[in-house]
Amino acid sequence: MPIPRDDMGEAPLTRTPIPLPAHFHQAEQSFSLKKRGRSLCYTLPPRPPVKSIPPISRIFPNRQRSWSQPRPQSVSFRTPQTVPPASKLYDQSKGETFFKQCFQSICKLGRGSFGEVYKVRSREDGCLYAVKRSVSPFRGESDRQRKLQEVRKHERVGQHPNCVRFVRAWEEKSLLYLQTELCVGSLQQYSEELAGPLPPQRIWNVTCDLLRGLKHLHDRNLLHLDIKPANVFIAFSGVCKLGDFGLMVELDGSDGSGDAQEGDPRYMAPELLDGVFGKAADVFSLGMTLLEVSCNMELPTGGEGWQLLRQGHLPTEFTSDLPPDFLKVLSAMLDPDHRCRATVDWLLSLPAIQRAERWRKLTLATQWTLGKLLVLYQVRYCQHGNSFLWYFIRF
């Protein structure tokens, strides 16, 4: 329920403010519309310099590092034996890397503190993919094992239509490469290009897709812990997919929640500051993601606005135009008490979500059928240059 406003028109804090870490920036005290001019690339700040001893190669430049892989080797926790990545195009006698021999690099999609992502075309099957390459070489065996854990997480996620599909991984010359499916872009890019709130039907579609993807993770006792628009990707079919599993935690694995890290403060659940890591934290982050894109709202990173959102207050100046059923879903996902917060299964059982899912399946089936008709049309009539059917499908 919305918190009543005081005489000045502001919603007062009704609980003791949550203590925030020192690295949280104090945001503006009131809620605001989404700021323009943000880069479309989902990049991260540069990594701070490592205060440690220099790499072994700098101390003993002629010594071979046991953890270094000068030749390409597949990385998989399903098949622990070390084998070269499978490809008929790779010629070991050539000086070029596996990446250059087997892929045509089209453009760089983005760069973060730990990796850079390229849009590539496979020379083997002609399909487009995304390849993430680590920015810096392994600094040692422990650093290598830490980076390889991302491969393990992708393999734990497995295949699901609402999770970014992992293809394979390999290491070469102390760099890690991860090949995944290519998506059109992120939900962050889509909302910024739209320059306004997402239409209601699109919001329901995003909600259904991401709830299904999150259910897939939670059914496997996996926590994403970094759900935000920049980590939600849109496939060419229009389906939304969860991606970027770098902070993912396995509740039934050896890591547990001991090494868990909170993600972006704008989307993080309040209980994470108390060290409570559970599935409810993902639901909260998803709720904040939906609040942002449905209202074109700039989420605060700190200050009173950050506190209000974590006390169950949804600013009516932004949410008044939302459908009532969707507003109820948001309120259930953003419950301040993680013990009372809605679960993914409960949300999927709501009549409003089930109606939206039925419509979603119908529209996806219609788009698939029209896509097949478009292919047949192009094969038969493309020499005439008539693109009426393509225009019809898009609009």
Automatic annotation (TrEMBL):
Keywords on record: ATP-binding, Cell cycle, Golgi apparatus, Kinase, Magnesium, Membrane, Metal-binding, Nucleotide-binding, Phosphoprotein, Serine/threonine-protein kinase, Transferase
Binding, ATP: K132
Gene Ontology molecular function: ATP binding; metal ion binding; protein serine/threonine kinase activity
Limits of the Protein kinase domain: 103-353
Enzyme Commission number, as recorded: 2.7.11.1
Top class in the EC scheme: transferase
Protein name: Membrane-associated tyrosine- and threonine-specific cdc2-inhibitory kinase
Source organism of the structure: Pelobates cultripes
Lineage of the organism: Eukaryota, Metazoa, Chordata, Craniata, Vertebrata
